[in-house]
Write a structure and sequence with these properties.
Elements (H helix, E strand, L loop, with lengths): L1 E5 L5 E2 L15 E5 L35 H7 L8 E6 L5 H16 L2 E5 L4 H10 L7 E4 L4 H11 L3 E5 L16 H18 L3 E5 L13 H4 L2 E6 L6 E9 L7 E7 L2 E4 L3 H6 L9 E8 L2 E13 L7 E4 L3 H15 L6 E7 L11 H13 L7 E3 L2 E2 L5 E2 L4 H10 L4 E5 L12 E5 L2 H7 L4
Parallel strand pairs: 4-8, 4-9, 5-6, 5-7, 7-8, 15-16, 17-20, 20-21
Antiparallel strand pairs: 1-2, 1-3, 9-10, 10-11, 11-12, 13-14, 14-16, 18-19
Helix pairs in contact: 8-9
Amino acid sequence: MAKFYCQECGYESLKWFGRCPGCGQWNTFVEEPSPPPSKYPTFRMTHQLPQPLSEVQISESPRSKTGIEEFDRVLGGGVVPGSLILIGGDPGIGKSTLLLTAADRLSKALGVVLYLSGEESNEQTKLRAERIGISSKELYILNETNLDYVNSQVESLRPRALVIDSIQTIYAPQISSSPGSVGQVRECTAQLLYLAKQESLPIFIIGHVTKEGAIAGPRTLEHIVDTVLYFEGEGHHPYRILRAVKNRFGPTNEIGVFAMHDEGLVEVANPSSCFLQERPEEAPGSVVIPSIEGTRPILVELQSLVTPTSFGIARREALGVDYNRVVLLLAVLEKRVGLHLGSQDVFVNVVGGVKLFEPALDLGIILSVVSSFRDKPIDPGLVCFGEVGLTGEIRGVLYTQERLREAAKLGFKKCLMPKHNAGKGKIDSLQIVTTGSIKEALEEVGLI
């Protein structure tokens, strides 16, 4: 019996809907025949007896280093045998380049690695490899979309790692729907999961993304795999952020920073200095914030522009930060400080194309907005962090010592932080100033 599936989130129904009840998108339902039961079980049935948790023995599986330190950091220290890793991102952002480079490094360290491309011929993949300087004799490439044939080649070649580029081009012959459909993506991912666990074979999967930035196909795809990585960045910026949003074998929200050059993706060992190298001094609306991404601190420049509106309704724009958070902080400024911004356009931007969402950015947004509104620059040797509440209080945040250490390493002399964090971090070369409210903070930097 045929069913209707949403091509965005995988919601299934016996009847057609104009608007998906699951994700709210319009005209995304497609009729597909129900897939037959897979001949490849997702998990092997072992029929074990219940066992006390205290008696379970854990065998440590050694991780394999890809040779790309930023990639290994995001994975939690390296590739775990038998793991299924999904990488998503906008077209052209560097997913194939990163995995082709990682496959080359793994083949030199472990042995045979199979790179499967369903979108490029072997000649096109070779051209890409030559451009980024890849020439490993243990790296095998294959242009194929039939998953059964891929399984047969894995059985004969016995690779140490497998790369699928991309999952939307692969199809299982026993399912009549086209490649990229909900049924095909689910079935192919389930078979690859079984293959990874059965053979202890690490498998990397590239997934296309929708216009909203989510992995194309059913949302359950992210629940099947062990690790989900997203490539972030903009085409007109050289920097790329690889972020872990799910990781069964390591910390989530960990990031790796890369720069796109002619020779491919290059690791950025010190991202803070790169993001601040073009920072203007004595510029109103500019402030530096030590943000924590995963387990690493990164200094970023936050800029705000406040200008009288030319229309009846003032505009609010936010790039790299949460728009709703910016609107909330502007309301706090009006209520608690008396700053009238109703007739002002407000633009907030994180320089370098980085996306940050932690609440420690609040104090920096407040200071940069008021600095631009007053047309008074903030001390270029100052960094600040802290969460702002609706009553105007500044709340404490985590990782104080890590933030201070990163700021001191780059030569900053003063840090403005919440009173709650006093005593939780100290750097001899850094002057620590604590504050309990946004009024105190604004007075400290000379904006009111």
